[in-house]
Amino acid sequence: MSNFDLEAFIDSHKADEAQKIIHSALKEFDNIAISFSGAEDVVLIDMAVKAKKDVHVFSLDTGRLHSETYRFIEQVRKHYNIEIDIMSPDAEKLEAFTKEKGLFSFFEDGHKECCGVRKVAPLRKKLATLDAWITGQRKDQSHGTRNQLDFAELDGAFSSKDKPLYKFNPLANWSSEDVWNYIKVFEVPFNELHQKGFISIGCEPCTRAVLPNQHEREGRWWWEESEHKECGLHIGNIIPTKQA
């Protein structure tokens, strides 16, 4: 939809009106999808299906997810009676990568290359087929990369000159407490790993439970500096650090 007016959309909505943002986005775009992986994303699905039964949902299967996460994806599919498009890495590129670097190269040279093959490339392929997507990002998930997050934006990472891609982040101003209050009130399904101390959940080798009072992103890529803790799916969030 090339005539979408982003500024008018932002002016006509408030950042704390998550459900209105989702419903309006679904009205604006026919070719729009929800990116699903965690607790926030199921909140989005729950809100979306109340407005539109045939909501489009996709999820990235990196091949390294926890067994609990695979069960969670299936639970959500059945609970909402929706189709979930499962996006997988390119088999040849993944085979070449693991042959050259092994299965745990990210502990030595960072997670970006592995995430590029397993997550970013499949996402880019999927987004190329869409006009807009909806994510469950929140500002407080990572103070180093997401504190400038807008609830509606032109996707700076995946748009092209010929094909703009719009991105909606309805939960940008929500807290983790807001998310879990919604989950409890509306009995929304959630990943059983959350009951084992996991908060932010990604691939099994790169995710661990956090201790009380630790920030949720401390459980992701814990061997790296905090400003690097984005996998590339939301690379537009990263604020460049000053060079010495």
UniProtKB/TrEMBL annotation:
Iron keyword on record: yes
UniProt pathway: Sulfur metabolism; hydrogen sulfide biosynthesis; sulfite from sulfate
Protein name: Adenosine 5'-phosphosulfate reductase
Keyword entries, A-Z: Cytoplasm, Iron, Iron-sulfur, Metal-binding, Oxidoreductase
A Gene Ontology molecular function term of the record: adenylyl-sulfate reductase (thioredoxin) activity
Residues in coiled coil: none
EC number: 1.8.4.10
Superkingdom per UniProt: Bacteria
Lineage: Bacteria, Pseudomonadati, Pseudomonadota, Gammaproteobacteria, Oceanospirillales
The Phosphoadenosine phosphosulphate reductase domain, residue ranges: 31-209
Xref: SUPFAM superfamilies: Adenine nucleotide alpha hydrolases-like
GO cellular component: cytoplasm
Function summary: Catalyzes the formation of sulfite from adenosine 5'-phosphosulfate (APS) using thioredoxin as an electron donor.
Recorded family membership: Belongs to the PAPS reductase family. CysH subfamily.
Organism: Marinomonas gallaica
GO biological process terms on file: cysteine biosynthetic process; hydrogen sulfide biosynthetic process; sulfate assimilation, phosphoadenylyl sulfate reduction by phosphoadenylyl-sulfate reductase (thioredoxin)
Catalytic activity line of the entry: [thioredoxin]-disulfide + sulfite + AMP + 2 H(+) = adenosine 5'-phosphosulfate + [thioredoxin]-dithiol
UniProt-annotated catalytic positions: C231 (nucleophile)
Cofactor(s) annotated in UniProt: [4Fe-4S] cluster
Record note on cofactor: Binds 1 [4Fe-4S] cluster per subunit.
Subcellular location(s) per record: Cytoplasm
Binding site for [4Fe-4S] cluster: C114, C115, C203, C206
